[in-house]
Amino acid sequence: MAPSPPTDWDSLDAPHVPGLLAQLSSVDEEARLRALEALYEVLGHQGTLEPAAPAAAPLLVDFACTTRMPDRHRVLILLADLTSGLPERTRFGFGPDPAVLALPRGDAPLVQEVAGVVTSNGSRLVALFEDHEPRVRTAAGFLLAFAPALAEASARATTSRLQREADVRARASMVMCAGRCGRTLGQRETHAIAGAALDSTKPLVRAAAGVALAYLDDAALGPRALAALAEAARSLPRETGEVLRVDEASGLFPWNCGDVGGLAAGVLGWLGERGVDGASRALREALDARLDAGEVPMERAMPDLAAMQAMLERGSHGEPAPEPSPILSPDDVPRGSTVRTIVRALVPLVLRRPTSGLLRRSDLSPEQRELVDYLARRLPDMGPFVRDP
Question: How far is CA 180 from CA 88, 293, 373, in A?
Fold first, then answer.
């Protein structure tokens, strides 16, 4: 895809972008993947957009909407990164601030420009819900979930397509897209979509329904939705490997890098912080199940625990304990470790307190003490948590 002549890529400090865009149509898959990886770095890797991103966005849209082009699903995922302006693991809208996408950021004007490009091409992108490639339909649901100006059109399109969608991953992505669109619109109509998905025989679709219902109305989350989230956190395997280097035989599920169990655990942690009954218990059962199955060697989980231990120790000695962040960076939760995600979701429940003052061990509620004891029992290196200072 050749860029338009007026674009001065040198002035945007991105002289290699035209060549990288052209390389996306190469017959060599490795060359395409290298180009896409380079575009992630040049345009806005890990959430900080560069000035070249708005100029590249229309070309990426053209590429994704051109049927003969390869890897269109990957280009749509790149567009989702640029449109949301946040790292892969932080864009789900959960946390104390539900308007997480509106957080102040230095590159906000660039994010708005890219989002404007997506919005202006809304009819073309929404039409991808009817694309012949399941991977494209799956990625379209992911991208359009983060295009609030297109929420109404996306909600209509997912409602229509879900009546005929046979691909499991595309179906799950559309269900989560419908949930996020419903949250954006303040509508409860999409409850019917997510509610019907709870009846699916596919664990991935049931997990997507739980996530969607949490988007829509966490305060009224029913037991079946909570059970679907618990099931995913407990047992759902990763759908793919890395976002860019995936097993093509198994397809690509872009939400949370394919770690839907980790996404469900993050949602359960957020629900637990809001006092939803059963969320903490579901997380503990998930951690038990995964550790008992030997899913992640204990030594791989320990580095993060040292920082968590320090949080409580500082608080127990009368020093201010840092507020648990509602947003985790990709470095905080390395890909491939759902166990880490579960532990990260449990620890804020220990640190939760009614005020922002000092956190001492004596301030912990009986439920929090029980959780501390549980973590120390399951993860021995956290044993110092249970000792009084």
Answer: 16, 33, 36
